[in-house]
Amino acid sequence: MTDNLSSNIKVLAFDIFGTVVDWYGSIAREVDAMHLGVDGDKFALAWRAGYVPAMQRVMLGELGWTLIDDLHRMILDQMLADFKITNLSEAQKRHLNKVWHRLDPWPDSVAGLQRMKSAFTICTLSNGNIGLLTNMAKHAGLPWDCILSAEVFKKYKPDPATYLGVSQVFDVPPEQVMLVAAHQSDLDAARACGLRTAYIERPLEYGSKQMKDVSADSNNTFHAGSLIELADQLGC
Amino acid sequence: MTDNLSSNIKVLAFDIFGTVVDWYGSIAREVDAMHLGVDGDKFALAWRAGYVPAMQRVMLGELGWTLIDDLHRMILDQMLADFKITNLSEAQKRHLNKVWHRLDPWPDSVAGLQRMKSAFTICTLSNGNIGLLTNMAKHAGLPWDCILSAEVFKKYKPDPATYLGVSQVFDVPPEQVMLVAAHQSDLDAARACGLRTAYIERPLEYGSKQMKDVSADSNNTFHAGSLIELADQLGC
């Protein structure tokens, strides 16, 4: 990882769910604390598993443009039926749905972002909606320069409009933007648009019972074990 | 200004040019320092005067959706002809056009915003584009939770879609959003959408040669001499 590579990069765009925050652990903990008679681990995994199919309904045109908050609620309502949870009020359901606004960061996230903010413009690039990402940043202390979201571009990742949108917003060529993510498919799509890519290892994204493969792909510009390690590699 | 009024407010949305940053002084200083043989004061005022007519060309449909960076450049090109400035390279013109990304804050802005950020979600609501507002925040140290812009809503203020857009983004009713601005027309339009309003006195917005009327309008929820004074009134 040479100085040349990093010196040309101006903007770091971060995937959020799993890369910067621990959705699995945060949701499992909150659901367990609610004593609903369900396993927080299974509940978290099922909720997340509903996410891609729900987005696909929008991408296929079956649903109009929909915020992730609303997709999360559609999935939640189905899950409450599946898990036979019948004793929640509407206010309790709304509060539970916004657990996605209260996800905790990985232990290295805040310190790593603070360091990278000193040398780069750091922004989110998430399918999460703007309000969700803003509330999460206040909850978790994430020091974004700017919150970019599928909501700005009215397309979800991996649509090229999202990756190229970052380059257009900041008026820099795609190769001066780097996507930072814990998901190879997201990085592949960004690289196809000309962005640089950094893979972050998050072996516990789905919990300790199903460890994730975090092996390196040489197509990425950087590969790091944490956001602090990425800041080290970027020399900031 | 009672506790009741401020306790119900969740989001403070700030107008930027003139309210948080001193466009007049910043541009006049930079133009004077370029030794172009023109009066920085006149140049700054003429540039800003071209802004509303340029936006109106978009609002009337004569131009498609256009970022403020591009409107600023159209006005600048006309001004360079009017002021008979012929010796700037394309790179110098691009750099000068981005002076709007390098505007300095009023002396109270950063401290006032830091205090309000502890109690509210603070965001921009400006016709400036996202990249401009993000670069300005890094330059000036403005600690936004979120950058909202006409670019997100594809409408300029005073279109209701911008004010109501803030309430929709944060999933709160309009009366839980307050627009903070140094311009009564902006506040009037926000109030018509159900937002609360705070007027900030910026008598020097157009320089000391043409002091601005900053008298109070009782329709506003708050009236303050600075962002620090507003933080005082909001009890944060």
List keywords for this structure.
homodimer, 236 residues, alpha/beta, Rossmann fold, DNA polymerase, domain 1, 2 domains, six-stranded parallel β-sheet, 12 helices, 46% helix, 11% strand
> SS-based structural class of chain A?
alpha/beta
CATH topology of the largest domain in chain A: Rossmann fold
Class of the largest domain in chain A, according to the CATH hierarchy?
A: Alpha Beta
Number of helices of chain A: 12
Beta-strand content estimate of chain A: 5-15%
Distance between the termini of chain A: 13 Å
Share of helical residues of chain A:
40-55%
Strand order of the largest sheet of chain A: 3-2-1-4-5-6
CATH architecture of the largest domain in chain A: 3-Layer(aba) Sandwich
CATH H-level homologous superfamily name of the largest domain in chain A:
HAD superfamily/HAD-like
Residue runs with pLDDT of under 50 for 5 or more positions of chain A:
none
Query: Biggest interface and its residues per chain?
Result: A-B, 20 and 20 residues
Order of helices and strands of chain A: HEHHHHHHEHEHHEHEEH
Got a strand count of chain A?
A: 6
The oligomeric status of these chains comes to homodimer
Q: Tally the structural domains of chain A.
A: 2
Describe the biggest sheet of chain A? 6 strands, parallel
